[in-house]
Specification:
With 124 residues, the chain is an alpha+beta fold. Helices cover 29% and strands 30% of the residues. The C terminus is likely disordered.
């Protein structure tokens, strides 16, 4: 799992889908590809459970990059179509990530150490 080096911004999009695909899968793939070409885009992580609840976190270098993505014409149209056809509900949160750490149970991975006083240096 790749994560950018802090500090960076995370846009957290939590949604509950409507029934059926209605072109959602194709458009979501297109939006991921388009976002990846935006200046300041650092990556994304996305999951959805069988009930339709999904969380997508996109990572951005700064708030200007997020604003540029929000103004993208194709993204704007996808948001309109999402409200009309794909989502029962959603919310968006924007957060600045100051630090990050991870654990992986990979071969030869050392055990995770607790950061001192709850503060940690970034790791990827």
């Amino acid at each position: 799992m790749h994560r950018p080096e802090p500090p960076y911004y995370a846009v957290i999009f939590t949604s509950r889908r409507t029934e059926g695909d209605n072109g959602y899968g194709e458009r979501a793939a297109m939006m991921s590809e388009l976002a990846a070409r935006q200046d300041g885009y650092l990556g994304e992580t996305s999951v959805r459970d069988p009930s339709g609840l999904g969380i997508t976190v996109s990572y951005w270098r700064n708030e200007a990059a997020i604003a540029g993505w929000r103004k993208n014409v194709e993204h704007t149209e996808s948001r309109r179509q999402g409200r009309r056809d794909w989502y029962e509900e959603y919310d968006v949160r924007v957060a600045r990530v100051e630090r990050s750490y991870a654990f992986s149970r990979g071969e030869g991975a050392p055990p995770e150490e607790e950061p001192p006083n709850g503060v940690s240096a970034a790791s990827s």
